[in-house]
Amino acid sequence: MSIDITTARKVAHLARIAVRDEDLPDLARELSAVLAFMEQLNEVDVEGVVPMTSVTPMRLKRRPDVVTDGNIQDLILANAPDAREGFFVVPKVVE
């Protein structure tokens, strides 16, 4: 698929990229090259290939999923204008 100058101008506009008119032919050629490469990738047979998250076959390190309070309650409440008994104090809104 080949990209013409009109399409390159439209793509630049949609991407909110300022492109001078004299640079549009180069942009059109580069976009055409990208599309040609994508078409070339579509020719690769990937049947039976398992998707990978990395090029090295290793399992990611994981930590145990444990819920904690972070042990920084005092530091957090120090930022509050008013705190009592370990909670934020806010004005009453509902009568």
From TrEMBL:
SUPFAM superfamilies: Glu-tRNAGln amidotransferase C subunit. Gene3D superfamilies: Glu-tRNAGln amidotransferase C subunit, N-terminal domain (1.10.20.60). It is an enzyme of class 6 (ligase). Keywords: ATP-binding, Ligase, Nucleotide-binding, Protein biosynthesis, Transferase. Pfam families: GatC (PF02686). GO terms for biological process: glutaminyl-tRNAGln biosynthesis via transamidation; regulation of translational fidelity; translation. The keyword Protein biosynthesis applies. Its EC number is 6.3.5.-. It comes from the Bacteria. Signal peptide: none annotated. It catalyses: L-aspartyl-tRNA(Asn) + L-glutamine + ATP + H2O = L-asparaginyl-tRNA(Asn) + L-glutamate + ADP + phosphate + 2 H(+); L-glutamyl-tRNA(Gln) + L-glutamine + ATP + H2O = L-glutaminyl-tRNA(Gln) + L-glutamate + ADP + phosphate + H(+). Allows the formation of correctly charged Asn-tRNA(Asn) or Gln-tRNA(Gln) through the transamidation of misacylated Asp-tRNA(Asn) or Glu-tRNA(Gln) in organisms which lack either or both of asparaginyl-tRNA or glutaminyl-tRNA synthetases. The reaction takes place in the presence of glutamine and ATP through an activated phospho-Asp-tRNA(Asn) or phospho-Glu-tRNA(Gln). This is Aspartyl/glutamyl-tRNA(Asn/Gln) amidotransferase subunit C. It comes from Albidovulum inexpectatum. The gene is gatC.
